[in-house]
Design goal:
The complex is a heterodimer of chains A (297) and B (319). Chain A is α/β, with parallel strands linked by helices. Chain A has twelve helices and nine strands. Chain A starts with a helix and ends with a helix. By secondary structure, chain B is α/β, with parallel strands linked by helices. Chain B is built from twelve helices and 13 strands. The radius of gyration of chain B is 19 Å and the shape is globular. The two termini of chain B are 32 Å apart.
Chain lengths: 297, 319
């Protein structure tokens, strides 16, 4: 067996996946030839990146998707819990929506300002579909029938310590005002498994301050552990017709809490049905979570 | 072509844009008269029927005499000093001319019954920032001078005109134009020089988007601003945009790839020899600053430009 064949077996895509990527990108090319993306979204680069990362998605993280029947051919604001110090959850959700969920689409992930200004990385993120999380940007994308991926927990989501795993941090409200402005339905999502990629987290706030980054969570492992990932997709949530985008914070908060509740429900179901790869860690963790929830009540 | 007679004053006549605009105005309105003034020499402007030129020092007295001697119907103020220099003396002069000078010109326009005044500002007033929204509208905050105080003359002049515009709208129609990068064979601004420099830096780490407008199209917008555009502030750009690296390819630039993240350090060394690049321009090589043209399209139509962005860049290459 030649080395290239061996590598292909370990790292390459199956012929079915290769054919699927080709088919999906033919469809996407048709869609994107109609307008020019002002952030530099590069479909060719996306295809290459996807061909490289699909084996990681399939074989390393063994991603499963539940609830794909809830996704219709609409523009959505996709709201997910944010997990893992390195936001690999965004990458896995994006691959899922490009390859395994019909109709295929490239999600436009909202990123923090600090990310957009990083040399090389900012450009690469823009070319693979990420954009600065800004209202005008979202408005432009939704008008062009794109779907947006939002993590309303922001950096708080990825800088949690171990005891806070799978506990959603307070959702910010900006995404809901954007949804109201465009009357775009919200698709809640829960990612289960990504927290365990980096099991112990120490948030070095002082270093984050020195490097002028919003968060600097550190873990004992530099490379993500092969935690099996489940993506649970909930039913789309329509925004109320009678609520204005300029409504007071308390009215928006009420709606945002409902969405956060949906994500929590999906997480609970996901944690119940997850694969036992990290069973030894999960059990004490689940006990801890249950105890904390009891205490809160 | 209108039979109505009008007298137009163009301030900043020595510039390439003013020259093209005057020719266009006279071809569209042969009955009009144009007086072009500049503090620079105007001897190389070819004679043209209807065009009179005057080289004079920009001073309050000279402008007052000018407005007393002529009854202008419209004034095109294209006389802002280029902001592509960091020199402290030039900055002081820029503040004096762009802010104080513009204020005096607007006051004279008001007192002498000018019907329309058009001021050429720039999209640089918005600033190139990492958190810029896509397609900045005219209502976007002018943030250029927050990071680069040396741009305060540009921002202050724009704000002064905006303030004047609404306060005096019943007496005088004022139009402020904020064009994107104007490029062409007769334009000598920083962007034209950058694109025409065969050794221009080619950013490796950033690839922002740019909008370009051909000098001829910009001159056409200036002509139309006298007759077709009502009081207001307008971004001037086409609907197309292009990534910097593609633009450099189109103009045939052979510059070497360079990480812009290191450019500031290199610029500090160049400062010693006084050949540095203005720092605000480095920001434009990092972050996009795209402007929204919907307001202008309402008055000039969707296809108000003759040259597309690629055609505009290819015309530069043909030089």
């Amino acid at each position: 067996m030649q080395l290239s064949q061996a590598l292909q077996m370990v790292w390459g895509n199956t012929p079915e996946d290769d054919a699927k990527i080709t088919e999906v990108f033919a469809l996407l090319r048709e869609k994107y030839q109609k307008y020019q993306d002002p952030w530099g979204f590069n479909l060719e680069l996306c295809e290459k990146t996807l061909r490289t990362l699909l084996p990681v998605y399939r074989r390393y993280f063994k991603v499963r998707i539940f609830g794909q029947e809830n996704v219709t051919d609409n523009s959505f604001i996709i709201v997910s819990n944010h997990t893992g110090q390195v936001p690999l959850d965004a990458m896995l959700i994006t691959i899922a929506f490009a390859i395994d969920i019909q109709p295929p689409r490239i999600l436009r992930a909202m990123v923090e300002r600090f990310m957009a200004q990083l040399p090389f990385i900012g450009d690469l993120a823009a070319q693979t579909g990420s954009i600065l999380g800004d209202r005008a940007n979202c408005q432009y994308l939704l008008e062009n029938k794109e779907s947006i991926l939002v993590f309303p927990e922001g950096v708080r989501g990825i800088s949690k310590n171990t005891t806070q795993f799978y506990r959603t941090q307070n959702f910010s409200q900006g995404f809901y005002r954007i949804a109201l402005q465009n009357r775009t339905p919200i698709l809640p999502i829960a990612v289960v498994g990504a927290e365990e990629m980096f099991p112990f987290v120490w948030h070095v706030k002082s270093l984050a301050k020195i490097f002028k980054v919003p968060a600097l969570p550190l873990s004992i492992n530099a490379f993500p552990l092969p935690s099996p990932i489940d993506i649970h997709i909930g039913k789309p949530i329509e925004v109320p017709e009678d609520l204005s985008p300029e409504a007071p914070d308390k009215d928006i908060k009420e709606q945002v809490l409902k969405i956060e509740g949906q994500v929590k429900k999906l997480l609970a179901v996901g944690l119940k049905h997850r694969r036992p790869f990290f069973d030894e860690i999960r059990k004490p963790l689940s006990k801890l979570i249950l105890k904390q929830e009891r205490d809160e009540r | 072509m209108s039979a109505e007679k009008k007298k137009v004053l163009i301030i900043g006549m020595a510039g390439g844009l003013a020259r093209i605009t005057s020719r266009l105005l006279l071809s569209e309105h042969p009955n009009w008269e144009i007086l072009g003034v500049d503090s620079r020499s105007l001897h190389d402007i070819p004679p043209l029927k209807g065009l009179e030129t005057l080289s004079m020092k920009y001073s309050r007295g000279n402008f007052e005499n000018l407005f007393r001697a002529h009854k202008f119907d419209a004034v095109l103020h294209l006389g802002r000093i280029s902001h592509s220099s960091n020199d402290a003396d030039i900055l002081a002069k820029r503040l004096e001319l762009s802010v104080m000078g513009t204020n005096r010109i607007l006051d004279l326009c008001l007192r002498s019954g000018v019907g329309k005044v058009v001021i050429l500002s720039t999209f640089h007033v918005y600033g190139a920032l990492a958190d810029n929204s896509i397609f900045l509208t005219e209502d976007a905050p002018l943030k250029a001078s927050i990071k680069h105080p040396e741009l305060r003359d540009v921002v202050e002049m724009d704000q002064l005109c905006g303030h004047f515009m609404w306060k005096r709208q019943s007496e005088l129609s004022t139009v402020v134009l904020r064009p994107c990068n104007i490029i062409g064979t007769q334009i000598q601004n920083a962007m034209s020089r950058f694109l025409n420099n065969p050794m221009a830096l080619r950013p490796m780490d950033y690839n922002p988007f740019f909008q370009f407008i051909h000098e001829f199209d910009m001159a056409q917008v200036l002509c139309n601003s006298i007759t077709k555009i009502p009081t207001g502030t307008y971004n001037v750009a086409g609907s197309e945009f292009i990534a910097l690296r593609e633009a450099l390819d189109l103009v045939g630039s052979k510059g070497f790839p360079f990480p812009i993240v290191l450019a500031k350090g290199m610029n500090d060394i160049l400062k010693v020899f006084k050949i540095e690049v203005p720092e605000y321009l480095l920001d434009y090589l990092k972050f996009s600053c795209l402007i929204d043209n919907r307001n202008l399209r309402q008055h000039l139509g969707d296809d108000f430009l003759r040259f597309g962005i690629r055609e505009t860049l290819e015309l530069i290459r043909l030089r």
